[in-house]
Design brief:
heterodimer; A: six-stranded mixed sheet; B: about 80 residues; mainly alpha
Amino acid sequence: MIESLRMRGFRRFPEASVEFGPGLNLVQGENNAGKTSLLLAIEYALFGRVAGYTSLFGLLHPKARGLGVELRFRAKNGQSYVLQRAHLKPPRAKSKLVGHFTLLRAGVGEEPSAYLASSDFSNTEDDLAKHVFDLIGITRRVFEQVIHVKQGHVTDILEGSAKLDAVLGVTTAAVASDELRGFALEQEKRAGNAELLRTRLNAIAHEEQTLANAAAEHSTQAEDRERAKASHTERVTTAEAELARLQPLHAALGALRVAGSNHARATETLQAARARSQSAASGDDQTRQDLLTRREGALANQTRERGRIDDLAEARAVLERKHGDLSGQLERQASLVGGTRCETCGQLVDAAHLERERSKLEAAVKSLDGELEAAQAERRTAKGALDDATRTLAQLDAAIAANESLRQQKEALFAELGRAELALIAASAKLDEAVISAEAALERPKSASASAGSAEELISALQREVERREANARDQRADARARLAALADADAQARARVSETTAALQRIARERADLGNQLKQAESAERVARQLRALSGAFKTLQRSLRERACESLAADTMRLHSALSGDGSELLEMRVDPERYLVQVTPSDIGAEVPAHLFQGGGHRLLLGLALRLALAKHVGGCPFLLLDEPTYGLDAARRDALLDRLETALGGTTQLLLITHHDVSTRSAFRIRVERKGKQSNLLTQGASV
Amino acid sequence: MEDDARKLLAACAELEGDEGLVEVALAVLAFTSHLLDDDDNLTRVGNLSGAARGRLAERTLELLDATPTAPEVPE
């Protein structure tokens, strides 16, 4: 219900306000006084525009820079609200109006007003329209087609109007049906590849399962390889430990073997040396005896030769003295020449005698020379023999010394041999210990050792055993390493395969996620398309149902209201509203056949019928809090006009506020009255309140 | 009239008694009606403009996404 209206700069109203009462409100005034402006102001306030006015400048008071309307109304919830709307010219603007609106809940008592929507708070016209619909249940179409009945258009509705579709919801259903079918087509296009996506996803799932199986197999194989690697690593470790254990044993056995060999050779050498020394001992003694004997002989020879030389020296000395004597004699005789005297005796020397004596002396000298030479030769011989004897003696002394030295050396050798024998015995004991230790290390059965002969053979056997075991350990290690290398290769290949599988799985996961999203969208589109199709079909059905039900309802209500408004009983037997065009068909009692209402009714009847249909339409639309009727009584005589106004409120059940404009004098009617007066170019409002 | 529309829609075979879809239908109708009430949303011949169609589509899809649907049959 509209409670009040304030206008400023609206058409001919520079400033005006009016209050309305419940029920019938009569807006009276002369023609062209500005009555309709009230209804336009209400429309402007509610919707910010007025049907038929393309520009709000047409609503602007000529001297005003803006227009404003404040509409106070009571909503369906019983509370009062104030809707303020204004359009103002900005400074220096000539053809532009800037609009503002504010909707607030009116304060009651101490309760202050509360804003619901305002253009100053970024609310839009849509927001305001929604609030208006929520509060009073009307839309702009309903306002134009149902609530606001314009002057001279009361009976137009009898001719049928496709515009009724709009207020009956048929247009809405039709548009919604068409649009949603279009949306459904778009969604179906989006969902077109859903089946393909499902097929592809199934294939991907199969491929993914295959890859997952392969990955599981790779994992199992990797575990097997890890176990095998651990086993082979242990084998390598064991073999290396065995080799490490055998290596010193091997070296020890090698050394043992060398020691054994050396021991054997030393034993042999020692035995040979002992044998040789024992055999040489007796020979050496004989030799020494021989040498001593020979030395004695040589010493005797030396002594003899030395004596002989001495003898020869004495003989030589004798001979030399004789030679001297003779030589002296000879010289003396040589100095004696015949006839000379002897110096000794003084006698004359006979030359012949002298010659003879000289020859004898010379012969004696020659003989002595011969003897001397012989003695000399003999001496030389003796000297040579002495020298030989001396040399022989020296040689024998040297030989004896050498023999002595040899004897001493032999004794030292014997001592050395003794020590060597002791060392050999000790080495033999150590060798035996080492062999026993090696056997223990090799854990050989005693029977094997027992079967071996000498220590050397035993060592050789042990060495062979060690070498066999080393070879075995090396083989084991090489085999294990080869297997580890093979496992490493297999690992690398497996890693490559796992990497490929993982990459493939990741690719598939990405593809699946992508396709899943696409399928989700496609399925969502399918679902939405199905729903849109369903909604479109439902709206199509609703469209028919609304129209048929509306026509049935309108026909029945119009008959009832027409009868109520007529008061004197309806002249109509039947009424039908054509669902195709909303053309009203009536069956008048005087004709008895169905005829179009707008052709076969009188003016007053058509007006009543049209008014009844409009009221029926308002009832059908439902919840109209007020109706704005501009000159609905036009064309009625005074009696029918008064009767109509009397019955109108009653026919509506008293729940709907009526703002009825009339320029007729209806003073006899009980109503809330508003008078509009015009003074020059301005109009004014006078609220006269309820009156009878 | 809204009650009538609700009853009629609920009776529609297309909606199969899906109350959620009936609510969506009512909301779509209300929004369509709201669009039709504004001449700015209409072409010269009275159809919805492209922008209005877009808004209606957006609102409809928004309403449908918010509507619980029957659980999908697992593959």
